[in-house]
Specification:
The protein is an alpha/beta fold and about 180 residues long. Helices cover about 15% and strands about 30% of the residues. It is built from three helices and eight strands. Pfam families: Glyoxalase_4 (PF13669).
Length: about 180
């Protein structure tokens, strides 16, 4: 198991979770549980402060209120948490991948075509048709899709691995290498 690179964070063990803010926690929970198939593990909140705790610790407006946060597990890989905030200076536009701060969350699936049909069957907007990668990522297929609130997500699949793996001294972490247990 690889460890941290010299000069990196002492004790680095891996990515524990990814967090993002959604406009409606109930809608997001239904989507991630009922459409994606994640499990809601627990929730916390609300959090607010009359002082500057929110600004000091989270770099948000001091009067921001985190209504609630929820942690999810989606099979293997990092957990994720979603937040619903109220803040006087809140921006509500979703960043695109080309915007600074743009992002997406990718889900590994064993059958990309079946997963795409599942999404379409739930009325999810799939962006184009699956793309076959080339170069170092040859062996991979992927497609982007949008949540009901416009956040970008991706499906990826490479059941026989990617081309870069043949001579790579370090391999990317891959969900299909995890032994359930």
């Amino acid at each position: 198991m690889p460890g941290p690179r010299p000069g990196g964070l002492p004790g680095l063990a891996g990515v524990e979770h990814v967090g993002f803010t959604v406009p409606d926690l109930e809608e997001a929970t239904r989507f991630f549980v009922d459409v994606i198939g994640c499990e809601l593990v627990y929730s916390l909140g609300p959090f607010r402060s009359d002082g500057d705790w929110m600004a000091e610790h989270l770099d948000v407006h001091p009067r921001a209120v985190m209504r609630e946060l929820r942690f999810f597990r989606c099979a293997n890989g990092p957990n994720f948490e979603i937040f619903e905030y109220e803040a006087p200076d809140q921006r509500t536009a979703q960043p695109r991948n080309s915007d600074v701060g743009g992002h997406h969350l990718a889900f590994y699936v064993t059958d990309l075509d079946a997963a795409v049909e599942h999404l379409r069957g739930h009325g999810v907007r799939v962006l184009g048709e699956p793309t076959t990668s080339s170069g170092a990522s040859a062996g991979q297929r992927w497609v982007y899709f949008l949540t009901p609130w416009g956040m970008q997500l991706e499906l990826v699949s490479y059941p026989d691995g990617k081309a870069y793996e043949e001579n790579a001294p370090v391999l990317l972490w891959q969900p299909q290498r995890v032994v359930p247990g």
